[in-house]
Amino acid sequence: MKIGFIGLGIMGKPMVKNLLKAGYPVMVWNRSQAAIDEVVACGAVCATKEEIGKNADVVITMLPNSPQVKEVMLGEDGVAQFMHEGQIFVDCSSINPVASKEIYAALKEKGIEMLDAPVSGGEPKAIDGTLSFMVGGKQEVFDTCKDILLEMGASAVLCGEVGAGNTTKLANQIIVACNIRALAEALTLAQMAGVNPQAVFEAIKGGLAGSTVMNAKAPMMIAGNDKPGFKIDLHIKDLNNVLDCAKTVGAPVPMTESVMEVMQWLHEHEGGQKDHSAIAQYYEYLTGIQIGR
């Protein structure tokens, strides 16, 4: 099965490398040539959007947000113009579920099926191929693509029709953001009370408060490591989609609104390109202390 992959950023590049390791032929397109060169050196083939649209059995995108996915797929020289009945589009970007449904409506007119399949796990899990895929679409389309997804991830769960994958991702991003903020708040409290944050982490990580978020982000906070696995600005984008969706369906999201204010503060203070664990730096600003240091 030939794969066309568009979007070779922090996540897309290792995802392509894992597909290549699994033996899939992969054509790639990206705005940055350096990223293309890196995956071509691993066996990918550089292609135009037209070549991908005409020749790929499955077209995968991993792009920043709804406007970029719409432009790449439905724009003036979009991939969909060159696709034909029987092909499948898999969008692994995290976008507004309303946009997913709009894209699918346009593709259905050409007989093209679609899955929205955003991921969770960040760069480390993209690299080791253990991402979690939250998928929306038809069961038979999911069954066709599941093996491809599982070469890039450890799990792939069908959550409903197209749009359900991104709705699930929005729920995921609420939980992750609120957990990171709670972790930063808790470790700050511990340090200000004279207890070593590392000891607190070791003591509670195996209990009810323990989580994948804690295991990934507590060591980063304690070490002062804000190298991005998932950037603040990208999480702001996701939470904006949460707030838009919540407004549409009338869902109350006060915790999301609160953590969004913290992330916006970080963005305005040159923190947008840092890892979302840099929420801890907001507490450093409030208290004048650095967790673990």
Task: Compile the SSE list and pairings.
Blueprint: E1 3-6, H1 12-21, E2 26-29, H2 33-40, E3 45-46, H3 49-55, E4 58-61, H4 66-74, E5 88-91, H5 97-108, E6 113-116, E7 119-120, H6 122-128, E8 131-136, H7 139-152, E9 153-160, H8 164-192, H9 197-204, H10 212-223, H11 232-249, H12 254-268, H13 279-287
Parallel strand pairs: 1-2, 1-4, 2-3, 4-5, 5-6, 8-9
Antiparallel strand pairs: 7-8
Keywords:
293 residues; alpha/beta; six-stranded parallel sheet; three-stranded mixed sheet; 13 helices; 9 strands; 54% helix
Describe this structure in words.
With 293 residues, the protein is an alpha/beta fold. A 6-stranded parallel sheet has the order 3-2-1-4-5-6, sandwiched between helices. A 3-stranded mixed sheet has the order 7-8-9. The chain contains 13 helices and 9 strands. Helix 1 links the parallel strand 1 (3-6) and strand 2 (26-29). Helices cover 54% and strands 13% of the residues.
Mass-distribution shape: globular
Q: Could you estimate the helical fraction of the residues in percent?
A: 40-55%
The CA-CA distance between the termini, in Å, is 51 Å
Number of helices: 13
H/E series: EHEHEHEHEHEEHEHEHHHHHH
Structural class: alpha/beta
Could you name the ranges where pLDDT drops below 50 across 5 or more consecutive residues?
none
Q: From the alpha-carbon coordinates, what is the Rg to the nearest angstrom?
A: 20 Å
Question: Strands of the largest sheet, in order across it?
Answer: 3-2-1-4-5-6
Q: What is the average of the pLDDT values? A: 96
Number of strands: 9
